[in-house]
Amino acid sequence: AVLLCTEAPITLFPSILATPPSLFPVLDADGVLKPSVLLAVEAADTAGLESILIVVPDSAEAAFQRVFSSKPPPPSVMASLSAMQQANARRLQSLSSKIR
Question: Which residue from 84, 86, 57, 65 is spatially nearest to 74, judged by alpha carbons?
Answer without folding.
Answer: 86
